[in-house]
Every structure is written in C-alpha cells, then in structure tokens.
Design goal:
Radius of gyration: 19 Å
Number of strands: 10
Structural class: alpha/beta
Number of domains: 2
Strand order of the largest sheet: 1-2-3-5-7-10
Strand content: 15-25%
Distance between the termini: 37 Å
Shape: globular
Order of helices and strands: EEHEEHEEHEEHHHEHEHHHH
CATH topology of the largest domain: 2-enoyl-CoA Hydratase, Chain A, domain 1
Largest sheet: 6 strands, mixed
C-alpha cells in the first residue's frame, strides 16, 4: 500500500501534521497538497484542537515544487505558466492562507531543508524552531529563472528586511538554521535530537493561550506593516475595546490577583 503523503496524530489538544513524501524530500505533490488542506480544514473546525505542530519526515521539511512529475510543473509542457498559475491560485497558495487563517497557534518544527515553496509554508507559522542541520534555500532566481513564491517574498522582507531578503534570493545561498535564528527569521535553533521534544513543548505551551488570540496577533502585526503609527494606535485601541469585554480578560485578571496561572476556556 502507498504511504499517506501526510501523517496526522494528536498529543492532547495539539494536532501534529507530518509531511511524509520522504522519497522525494516532501516535495509538494498534488496528493500532499490536497491532503494537507483537508487536515487544515479539520483542525480549523475541531474546537478540541488548540495548537498545530507541523513538521516533515525524513531529511527535509519540504523542497518545494515537485519538478519530477508529468503534471503542471513538468518543464517543456504547453501552457505551463498558465496551468501552474491556476494551480497556485486554486491549491498551493491556499495552503499558506489556510495556515494564516487558523484560529490556533501554528508551530513549525523544521527538521531539514526548507527549499523553494517549502520556505513559504514554513514561514507561514507563528513560531518556527529548527534543527541545527536544517536550512533555508531559495533556488528560484539563480537556478530556475523564477521568483520565490507561496508568500516567501512577503515573509522574508518583513522578517529579515529587504537587503537580506534580496541577497538570499539573488545569490541562492543556503541560510543555516543557526544564522536564521540569529537574524530573527525563526524563533530558535536546537540540536537535531531535541527538535521534536522542544517543538512539542512549545506547541503544548501555546495551546494554553486564550482562544483565537494567535489569529488576533497575526492580524495586528500584518496591519502594522501597512498602517501609519496613528492608524496602528487606532487599530490597537479598537481591538482592545472588544477584547476587554471577553471572558478571557476577566480570567486573566482573576488569575493575576489570585497568583495562579490563568485557565482559559475551549475554542
């Protein structure tokens, strides 16, 4: 029997998705993309899930587009550009927007290379912790004459700044996990044998957050890149006006006064 392109398991209220096309270094086959979107929709709708841990099996997190297939990314096929663009609109890009729209925090455990489109998927997470042997790689311009996609140009400029994002894109050099952490692209770099344990501990920790506050944080920081200071101050004030009326704030104040950890309700 053919192995599932992704694996799904639960650790209490943490959902764990593992990309499982190990023979192809978790290249983004159509089967893998469809299966991933199905699971993300289930996580969105399952109110018992409070966090997602996303990782890869084998030597890579994901090397991006599957160039070995006879499908839309197969070089030399008629109408390749339009068919690939249609696929991106209908499927690939939606993986990134699915991740960014999840009402639960998303932790990525970067077990190996994140290359090509795999970079965008990894950086769509709220927190990325990487194995020391892992790295980011953007071969688009120097190897393929293309541009980074699946949101990589958006994430990289915001997390690294334009100078480093542009240099990584044009030079096509590998960015080791330790340097990525030093530059602020990811949260941390850990020894390979500690990756699963440390990433799962983070996922369990953020699973205790008030419901949907990861989504609130994403939206606030995204707004901050487009707003003026005055506009962002107004945005923060508007959101606080609503959030102060929610039961999570009341529980937080009670816990503070009682010198205990807050216990927030389910989604």
């Amino acid at each position: 029997m053919t192995a599932s392109p992704i694996l799904f398991e639960r650790d209490g209220d943490v959902a764990i998705i593992t990309l499982n096309e190990t023979a192809r270094l978790n290249a983004l086959s159509l089967d893998l993309q469809h299966a991933l979107r199905v699971r993300l929709a289930q996580i969105r709708d399952d109110r018992s899930i409070r966090a997602l841990l996303l990782t890869g099996a084998g030597k890579a997190f994901s090397v991006g587009a599957d160039l070995s297939t006879e499908g839309p990314m197969s070089p030399g096929t008629p109408g390749l550009g339009q068919r690939t663009a249609d696929l991106m609109h209908e499927l690939s890009n939606r993986i990134v927007t699915d991740l960014r729209a999840l009402p639960v925090p998303v932790v990525v455990a970067l077990n190996g290379a994140a290359a090509g489109a795999g970079v965008g998927i990894a950086l769509a997470a709220d927190i990325v912790v990487a194995a020391r042997s892992a790295y980011f790689y953007l071969p688009f311009v120097p190897k393929l004459g293309l541009l980074p996609d699946l949101g990589a140009t958006w994430f990289l400029t915001r997390l690294l700044g334009r100078a480093r994002a542009t240099a990584l894109t044009l030079l096509g050099e590998r960015l080791p996990a330790a340097t990525a952490a030093e530059w602020g692209l990811i949260w941390s770099c850990v020894d390979d044998e500690r990756l699963r344990e440390d990433a799962l501990a983070l996922a369990r920790r953020v699973a205790r957050l008030p419901a949907a506050r990861a989504l609130e944080a994403r939206r606030a920081f995204d707004a901050g890149f487009a707003n003026t200071l005055d506009e962002q101050l107004d945005y923060e004030t508007s959101r606080q006006r609503e959030l102060l009326e929610q039961p999570e704030f009341a529980e937080g104040v009670s816990a503070f006064l009682e010198r205990r950890e807050p216990v927030f309700g389910s989604r």
